[in-house]
Specification:
Largest sheet: 6 strands, mixed
Helix content: 40-55%
CATH class of one domain: Alpha Beta
Radius of gyration: 21 Å
Structural class: alpha/beta
Bound molecules: adenosine-5'-triphosphate, magnesium ion
CATH topology of one domain: Rossmann fold
């Protein structure tokens, strides 16, 4: 059973600059699936890392399954953090590591540092290899099981990072731009695979996405973040193009239509067209 996560008026400020999160309040119910959208720099990664207890709030309060993680000892907080699978925006994969070890690393690392090191050196157990194979097959990567990670394409690396999620089997899953390097077909099927894995396990899933159409098609709840603040937290059906224009700016409609011209070029084009008419 995944824990209920609640943020109450949470802010996070990095050492320099203005707060990356401001007055963020939200609840992720156990087993819920949520997409996080918003312009670059809006604070999506900061929010995911805050939920993962990797960043402390500089203001506000977090409730993690009825506990205040930042009032706990660091070892107690680490125990909560281990309930969490975070796929970073740029997943680090050790270049010389084989894919099979990379997929199994999260499971083996649970036993502490030495098991993690052993997982790099030892031959994995047959049952573990089978799990890694199955996890990779969900992302059409089963033939890469024994390949070195530095031989993978960008999109394959991203899918290996996702295959880790099923093996880690964590109750809370936070994926930061997990399909940004994938073509539209693979991206949609990879997202569907992680969603069905989370659903089958009753695990929570929070995913940041730049592809708003994919977010609207795949999730029933969307949170729009802009300049560190929640601009909307709505069912997908209520996330209209008008809402998205408010979130991303007036250029949103044209960008979606594939005619995102700078204002000057657009004016020039209009003049040329009317001049021809
Ligand atoms: N380590 C850091 N130190 C200082 N400022 C940071 C740090 N990480 C992020 N920021 C700033 O915090 C703000 C939010 O960044 P964040 O990475 O959360 O945005 P994002 O929504 O994930 O953007 P993107 O879509 O480009 O990944 C940005 O203004 C960024 O410059
Ligand atoms: Mg980010």
């Amino acid at each position: 059973m995944s824990p209920r996560l609640a943020l109450d008026a949470v802010a996070h400020g990095y050492a320099r600059g203005r707060d990356a999160l401001r007055d963020v309040s939200l609840v992720i119910e156990p087993g819920e699936q949520v997409a996080l959208i918003g312009p670059s720099g809006a604070g999506k990664t900061t929010l995911l890392h805050t939920l993962a207890l990797a960043l402390p709030p500089t203001r506000g309060h977090i409730d993690w399954g009825g506990r205040d993680p930042w009032a706990l000892t660091s070892s107690e907080r680490h125990a909560l953090r281990r309930q969490c699978f975070l796929a970073p925006q740029h997943p680090p994969l050790p270049p010389r590591q084989r894919v099979v070890h990379a997929v199994l690393a999260t499971r083996l690392a649970r036993g502490g540092l030495w098991p993690a090191l052993r997982s790099l050196l030892a031959t994995p157990r047959e049952a573990d290899v089978r799990d890694a194979f199955d996890a990779l097959a969900a992302f059409r990567l089963e033939d890469k099981l024994w390949l070195r990670c530095d031989r993978l394409s960008g999109g394959e690396r991203q899918r290996v990072a996702l295959a880790r999620m099923a093996v880690a089997a964590s109750p809370v899953n936070l994926l930061d731009e997990p399909v940004s390097s994938l073509d539209p077909v693979l991206g949609a099927s990879a997202l569907a695979a992680v969603q069905s894995d989370a659903k089958a396990r009753g695990a929570s899933l929070v995913v940041s996405l730049h592809d708003v159409n994919l977010a609207r098609a795949s999730f029933t709840r969307l949170i729009g973040l802009r300049e560190g603040q929640i601009q909307f937290d709505l069912p997908a059906s209520a996330v209209t193009d008008e809402r998205l224009r408010e979130l991303y700016g007036a250029e949103f409609g044209r960008a979606m239509a594939g005619v995102a011209l700078p204002e000057d070029d657009a004016d020039a084009l209009r003049l040329t067209v009317s001049g021809c008419a």
